[in-house]
Amino acid sequence: MLEARLTTLFGCIATLATALAPGLEVAYSLERATQGIAISPDGRKFLSQRYSTQFPPQAVELLSDNTTALTTFVNIDGARIGPDGCYWLVDGGSTGLNGSTKFVGMNSSTNTVDSIYYLDDIKASDSGIDDVRFGASGDMAYLSDTANALLVLNLTTGNGVRVLFL
Question: Which residues form the signal peptide (predicted)?
Answer without folding.
Answer: 1-19
